[in-house]
Amino acid sequence: APETAVIVAAVMSAVASATGAALAVRDDDAYRSRLHRLALRRGLPTACSTTPGTAVIQLDGVGHDVLRDAVDRGLMPTVARWLGAGPDPAAAPPTHRLDPWRTDWSSQTGASQLAILHGTNHDVPAFRWYEKDTGEVMVCNRPSSAVELQRRAVARTGHAGLLADDGASRGNLFSGGAGESALVLTVSARRGPGTRSRAGYFAYFCDPANAVRTALSFVAEAGREIGQSVRARLRKQRPRVSRGGLYPLIRAFATVVERDVVVAAVMGDLLAGRSAVYADLVAYDEVAHHSGPRSRDAAKVLRRLDRSLALIENVAEHAPRPYRIVVLSDHGQSPGETFHARYGLTLGDLVRAGCGLPVPRRAERTRSG
Q1: Domain spans of the chain, in order of start
Q2: Which one of 18, 133, 195, 276 has the fewest CB atoms closer than 10 angstroms to its CB?
Q3: How many CB atoms lie within 10 A of CB 42?
Q4: Residue 104 and residue 111 in contact, taking contact as beta carbons nearer than 8 Å
Q5: pLDDT grade, residue 80 (50/70/90)?
Q6: CA-angle at 294, arms to 216 and 244, nearest 5°
Q7: Which of 266, 260, 267, 246 is nearest to 304 (CA)?
Q8: Which DSSP symbol is given to 340?
């Protein structure tokens, strides 16, 4: 029957697409070409302004010294080439320069990104704090808190944000006033049809090839984390934090799913000729918090992030307008033990004990108890 033939053809097409993606899961050229074709099918412009657009890629948590060391060790050949530090500097003159900068009192993503995207981080003293006038605990990565912080910043500056003029915000805490957003925390907090920041997932995973590529990488990354965690425990590496429970899945989401969806969205933005794009890649920050900023685990993540930068650079060459690619970080990291790992009890337990309040029996049995 004609209906059966159509169904069989559709299934065979999906299987062929998925199989091709599985075989080319690490083939960046094939991946880039596929995304390019999909973008062109959506009717993106073939001509655009000759004024250069700006693509800002935030490598979350990557400090200046860490990036410099990664370039020197050959972990990030794309960045090295941009800085004129490649294998043949004469053949590839520098197109970028590397400058350090210092955060203010609050060295964390919420404060830095709010200032970059909205021009101020006034009254953001930390990642988490208690506001006496409202009696609320503000947490930068809590949707309701992020919405309030963005509202205050817009009210203080009188401007919607850095991306208000034909911009796109991808994977950020704040929208920057962008008309196009995906995986943005302040957008995810909105209520009502068509307002949630899920379009990035739907647009990416509706293609079987993308779904298979990311699914296989997700499983591999979760397995990689389990192996690295066991090795760190056997070697008794210190400092060390808990990496059990759901963390392997959380890490795989941050280093694979979020990265793939955000990079694909940025590629689409470049091919659409948007004037400004700001995207946050959180992979390194997530791994460095648990494995250490200069660990082998974090170094491998930097290598994969460099491949993402290469993909974005290659797509920018086919965009309908020239682009300037800016790579920045919101803060750095330094290794250190948690209070609990160092003293055997939490800071909360210590405060309770100092106030004469009861503490858990596990805290009483510690050397500090």
Answers
A1: 2-335, 337-369
A2: 133
A3: 10
A4: yes
A5: very high
A6: 50
A7: 260
A8: H
Q: Is-contact 94 83, C-beta < 8 A? A: yes
- Residues 193-209 have pLDDT tens digits of 555 555 667 778 887 88
Size of the chain in residues: 369
Six-digit token string for 368: 């500090």
Neighbours of 32 (CB within 10 A): 19
What pLDDT, on a 0 to 100 scale, did the predictor assign at position 281?
A: 97
Distance CA 44, CA 273 (A): 8
CATH 3.40.720 fits 2-335, yes or no: yes
List the beta bridge partners of residue 34.
none
Q: Supply the pLDDT for residue 38.
A: 55
Q: What is the rounded CA–CA span in Å between residue 362 and residue 353? A: 13
Which segments of the chain are extended strands (E)? Answer: 53-59, 128-131, 136-139, 167-170, 180-182, 276-281, 323-328
Q: Which of 328, 344, 337, 342 is nearest to 292 (CA)?
A: 337
Q: What are phi and psi of 110, to 5 degrees?
A: -55, -50
| pLDDT tens by residue, 145-164 | 999 999 999 999 999 999 99
Q: How far, CA to CA in Å, does 272 sit from each of 40, 56, 168, 320? A: 9, 16, 11, 7
Q: How far apart are CA 273 and CA 180, in angstroms?
A: 13
- Provide the 8-state DSSP code for 120: -
